[in-house]
């Protein structure tokens, strides 16, 4: 696996090296002995532009190296050449990075691009729609936020933590709209999922303090 990651990391440099070998072999020996290094060059260049270094980004994020992941992401100079599903993931990751920096306009722009391209899995699309909903809520656009979150639930979310987050966000929106019966129902659904993420558990505890006193 480390060897494969090294190939991905230095793919373009390897392509240049194999191209030099191919040209030299072609010049001094002939085309057919040079065919293999030519073929390797084409495969490496194709992989560099068509697939990009997304595998390396995944490893960095799994290791908690967000700075490294962003550096690899920024090394992609021609995202328009990426294979469509990979391009969708690229823009989604760009949106996530911008969201962590609280640059909500850039985050929304990139995540919309990812959604427009189509996500590889329905659950991934649901998670992106949930993030779009939370972005809209950060910008105080509750109507758009509610629309995105409802779409996320319909598309499907990858785990109970995301599902609980979606229901709690809808609960918050309903409380703001003073639709207390709906707020209680969404809260009940979130709590029934028994999430374990500390932030979500804390949010449930905070809402539970006063939701029983609401009418409806």
What can you see in these coordinates?
The chain has 216 residues and is mainly alpha-helical. It folds into two domains: 50 residues; 156 residues, Tetratricopeptide repeat domain (Serine Threonine Protein Phosphatase 5, Tetratricopeptide repeat), CATH 1.25.40.10. Helix 4 packs antiparallel against helix 5.
Write down the Rg: 23 Å
CATH architecture of the largest domain: Alpha Horseshoe
CATH superfamily of the largest domain: Tetratricopeptide repeat domain
Could you say which overall geometry the principal axes of the C-alpha atoms support?
elongated
Strands, count: 0
Pattern of helices and strands: HHHHHHHHHHHH
Name the helicity range.
over 70%
Task: Please write the CATH class name of the largest domain.
Answer: Mainly Alpha
Number of domains: 2
Number of helices: 12
Q: What share of the residues does DSSP label as strand, in percent? A: under 5%
Secondary-structure class = mainly alpha
CATH topology of the largest domain: Serine Threonine Protein Phosphatase 5, Tetratricopeptide repeat
Instruction: Describe the largest sheet.
Output: none
* Cα end-to-end separation: 57 Å
Mean pLDDT: 91
Contiguous uncertain segments of 5+ residues: none
């Amino acid at each position: 696996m480390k060897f494969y990651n090294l190939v991905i990391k230095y793919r373009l440099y390897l392509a240049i090296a194999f191209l030099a070998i191919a040209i030299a072999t072609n010049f001094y020996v002939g085309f057919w002995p040079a065919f293999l290094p030519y073929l390797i060059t084409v495969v490496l260049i194709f992989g560099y532009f068509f697939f990009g270094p997304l595998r390396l980004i995944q490893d960095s994020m799994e290791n908690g190296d967000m700075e490294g992941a962003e550096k690899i992401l920024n090394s992609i100079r021609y995202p328009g050449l990426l294979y469509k599903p990979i391009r969708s993931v690229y823009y989604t990751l760009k949106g996530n990075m911008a969201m962590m920096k609280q640059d909500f306009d850039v985050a929304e722009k990139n995540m919309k691009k990812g959604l427009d391209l189509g996500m590889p899995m329905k659950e991934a699309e649901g998670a992106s729609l949930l993030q779009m909903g939370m972005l809209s809520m950060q910008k105080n656009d509750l109507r758009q936020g509610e629309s995105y979150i409802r779409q996320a639930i319909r598309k499907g979310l990858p785990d109970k933590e995301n599902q609980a987050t979606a229901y709690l966000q809808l609960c918050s929106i309903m409380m703001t709209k003073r639709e207390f019966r709906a707020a209680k129902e969404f809260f009940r659904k979130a709590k029934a999922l028994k999430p374990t993420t500390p932030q979500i558990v804390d949010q449930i505890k905070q809402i539970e303090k006063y939701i029983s006193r609401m009418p409806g």
